[in-house]
Specification:
Strand content: 25-35%
CATH class of the largest domain: Alpha Beta
CATH architecture of the largest domain: 3-Layer(aba) Sandwich
Shape: elongated
Helix content: 25-40%
Low-confidence stretches: 293-297
Number of domains: 2
Length: 297
């Protein structure tokens, strides 16, 4: 059995009285592009910082590639991390960044880095502070990939990019994954981007994991069911209600079928990834999901 790329058990991180993460238990398989989705303040950046070894848990455990995060130099070399806003050194040139990367990373792939500069059109002599947002993102991606890591971690790297730059960055990311056999953990609040590039999903809200798994499996297991009021009070075993909306005449449910067998109920229809994510986020915040209310009208 392959070692999970990330495994946590009751992982908790607090900042004073504030809980950034609470009892997070995850087992993420290797070889996936994992989308970490949730609203601002959900704990996404905290989880990524814990995985990168930048901070330590308050309680619980986290293993990355079978070891404690940032346990030693060898472990650090196996993880590439790109923080929010794809930070680079404004006064250093693009070439300076590559030379620095080569000195700091024992697995540095200079050929890959040079090829990426040519493909993206980055000028080696240009200072990073004069690059556009998309160019900075491409430089950060090149630096992370040329480490030849086993895991690449991205904290909302495309949030500030325009649509063309975002598409270019995600295309480059998919190419790297295909060529390098690397696992990726990518946080984002852009569900369309997650749907385009990711095959595994973790939904975080209110500091807790709401649901996690392969995207195809999750979307296949979530359904909207519409029926007369009272007709949906008894559901088969393994069919869990995620959200419910009632009118005088009608009930609308979003359910998660964990039974394994296909859901065979009148009025049941599959829902898309965006509706599924929004339902869990609204539930975590104690709100009625708009998709349910729209269906019921």
């Amino acid at each position: 059995m392959n070692t999970p790329v990330i495994a946590t058990n009751a992982l908790t991180k607090r900042y004073g009285p504030h809980a950034a993460l609470t009892d997070v238990t995850l087992d993420i398989p290797a070889g996936r592009i994992v989308g970490l989705v949730g609203p601002n303040g959900a704990g996404k950046s905290t989880l990524l910082a814990l995985a990168a070894g930048l901070i330590r848990p308050t309680a619980g455990t986290i293993d990355v590639l079978g070891n404690r995060p940032a346990a030693d130099a060898a472990q650090l070399a196996r993880v590439g991390f790109v923080a929010q806003d794809t930070p680079v050194y404004a006064q250093l040139t693009v070439a300076d960044h590559l030379r620095l990367g080569e000195k700091l990373n024992p697995r540095w792939d200079a050929k890959l880095a040079d090829e990426r500069l040519r493909q993206t059109g980055l000028d080696p002599a240009k200072k990073a502070g004069r690059l556009s947002g998309g160019q900075k993102a491409q430089l950060a991606l090149t630096l992370a990939a040329a480490k030849r890591p086993d895991l690449m971690i991205f904290d909302e790297p495309v949030a500030a990019l325009d649509p063309l730059a975002r598409r270019s960055f995600l295309q480059s990311l998919m190419e790297f994954v295909a060529d390098m056999d690397v696992s990726v953990l990518l946080s984002s609040h852009l569900i369309a981007d997650v749907e385009r590039v990711c095959d595994h999903l973790v939904i975080l809200a209110e500091s807790r994991v709401q649901v996690a798994g392969e995207i195809d499996d999750l979307t296949a297991a979530h359904h909207r069911i519409v029926g007369p009021r009272g007709a949906l009070d008894q559901l088969p075993p393994g069919v869990d209600v995620v959200a419910a909306d009632h009118t005088d005449r009608q009930t609308t449910l979003i359910v998660h079928n964990t039974a394994g067998a296909p859901l065979d109920l009148p009025g049941a229809e599959p829902i898309g990834l965006e509706d599924m994510v929004l339902t869990y986020l609204h539930r975590a915040e104690g709100l009625a999901a708009p998709i349910l209310q729209e269906t019921a009208r």
